[in-house]
Design brief:
Rossmann fold, ten-stranded mixed β-sheet, about 40% helix, about 15% strand
Length: about 475
């Protein structure tokens, strides 16, 4: 999923300039890193794990190196094509954990023909992780009022963002300049070589589409097949990205509401999407001053927790029945179910600790899309969720590492056909981004899914699954204007 703190919810885009001719790395890289052999060891349930060595700074590859955690599940059939590299999104999502779910992530047909390979991108999980806040500090950070009404609340929001940035500098200062998407894409090419593949076959979801598109732009001659599902628009300015994403969540909520009206346990009194949105807005205004009951622990269920608790299940249509239950309880003053959704969204553990997903996401976003005080949102804000998704308190405003990156289109000139999959009512990566990315890529081929939820492959559409599998197996891309019907 593409998620994390509401104060940095907008997804990253934008690239750094390359320092070399990408399809032919300079000698130090080729001699030291492109010739390495991975030392695989069994790590449970048929998986094998290894560590890949990469330079911390690709401009100075002979200096410090870091390790990238890699996992693979060997192809189950005899007619092996090569490796299928996965990325689940984020940025900050663990590709190792994602690959361990290979049975649900990819089809049996792909399992038979490819080694399924996942990796934790630099700065994430077991690959030299970025660290910024501990569990209690993060609890405080995400509980800050995203729509401050008083000078004190505004100051608290800004101080929270400042403390986040200072925590990253104190705990991970040496990494922060080197965790941007272009460096992760370069790591992926070193991984491709270490896997023994002459060209890359890749399935990236959400932020993973930006990583894949960046790879294709840097290494167009090394592309075999890329599926980019739930696409970001690399050219969209920072503020526009946040505003459009806010619209995406509102579109998803309205789709959820219309579905809710067909269920007996629908908690909305009104029977139009507008009335349901008004009821949710009233709830948010209420909890801004009167928190909901919490039967789970002693945390306060405030406006921020409720927004996150609503957003999280919008990612997956299968979670909608539980969102109905959570909202029904919230309207009666109990926010425990929504808090559980918020905890799931941030991957909060039972002991109150968190993985480093939000830390890593913030670090990547601040490099890929640096803060600009002069940037203005040209897109009208969503009346329902826009104030929350595009709220202030951005740690990138105080980021200790300067970036000169600006978002721009990725063309990947010379690459073979690249498949982009867009879901019409995707909440986190709105459909218009998929259209934008497919049109930017010189060889982009768009598959449109008339569906709900975040990303499309292996979410229930046999039409999508068949076309993705056919492309990855036989290199047959979607035809122009290809569409998959609503389930």
């Amino acid at each position: 999923m593409a998620h994390r703190s509401l104060m940095v919810l907008s997804l990253a885009a934008g690239l750094l300039t390359t320092g070399f001719t990408a399809d032919r790395p300079p000698d130090p890289l080729r001699q030291t890193f492109y010739t390495q052999h991975l030392s695989w060891s069994a790590c449970g349930n048929g998986f094998e794990c290894a560590m890949l060595a990469v330079p911390l700074d690709y401009a100075h590859p002979a200096k410090e190196r870091i390790s990238i955690s890699v996992i693979r599940l060997p192809a189950s059939g005899r007619d092996r094509i090569g490796s299928l590299v996965l990325n689940p999104g984020g940025p900050g999502g663990s590709g190792v954990d994602y690959a361990r779910s290979a049975a649900s992530v990819v089809s049996p047909q792909l399992r038979a023909r490819f080694d399924i390979v996942g990796f934790d991108p630099r700065g994430v999980a077991d690959s030299s992780p970025v660290r910024c806040l501990n569990g209690p500090q993060f609890d405080q950070y995400i509980a800050l009022d995203p729509t401050p009404d008083t000078p004190a609340e505004k100051e608290a929001l800004e101080q929270g963002a400042r403390r986040f940035a200072e925590g990253c500098q104190a705990r991970s200062g040496g990494l922060l300049a080197h965790v941007g998407t272009p460096d992760a894409a370069r790591d992926m090419d070193v991984l491709r070589a270490a896997l023994g593949d002459s060209k890359l076959t890749y399935l990236g979801k959400s932020y993973g589409t930006l990583l894949g598109a960046t790879y294709a732009d840097l290494f167009p001659g090394k592309v075999r097949a890329l599926v980019l599902d739930g696409a970001l628009n690399p050219a969209a300015p920072r503020a526009e990205t946040a505003a459009i994403q806010a619209r995406g969540f509102e579109t998803a909520f309205r789709s959820f509401a219309r579905d809710c009206f067909t269920a007996k346990d629908c908690p909305f009194k009104g029977r139009t999407a507008d009335k349901a949105a008004a009821e949710l807005t009233a709830l948010l205004h209420k909890v801004d001053t009167t928190p909901l009951r919490n039967t789970l622990d002693k945390r306060t269920i405030n406006e921020s927790a409720v927004v996150t608790g609503v957003i999280a299940p919008l990612y997956d249509q299968k979670a909608w029945p539980y969102l109905r239950q959570g909202l029904a309880a919230a309207f009666k003053g109990d926010g425990t179910t929504l808090l559980r959704f918020a905890d799931f969204y941030y991957s909060r553990r039972e002991d109150g600790s968190y993985p480093n997903e939000t830390d890593a996401q913030t670090a990547v976003n601040c490099l890929d899309r640096p803060y600009s005080a002069t940037a203005a949102a040209p897109v009208k804000q969503s009346s329902l969720l826009g104030d929350y998704v595009t709220a202030g308190g951005d740690p990138c405003k105080y980021w200790p590492v300067k970036s000169t990156t600006t978002p721009h289109a990725l063309h990947a000139k010379g690459a073979p056909p690249i498949m982009v999959v867009g879901t019409i009512r995707d909440p986190a990566t709105p459909y218009q981004w998929a259209k934008a990315l497919a049109s930017q890529l010189s060889s982009g081929r768009l598959l449109t899914f008339d569906g709900d939820g975040h990303t499309a492959y292996r979410t229930g559409s046999s039409c999508v699954d068949t076309q993705v599998d056919r492309y990855l197996l036989s290199l047959t891309p979607p035809t122009a204007g290809a569409r998959c019907p609503k389930l």
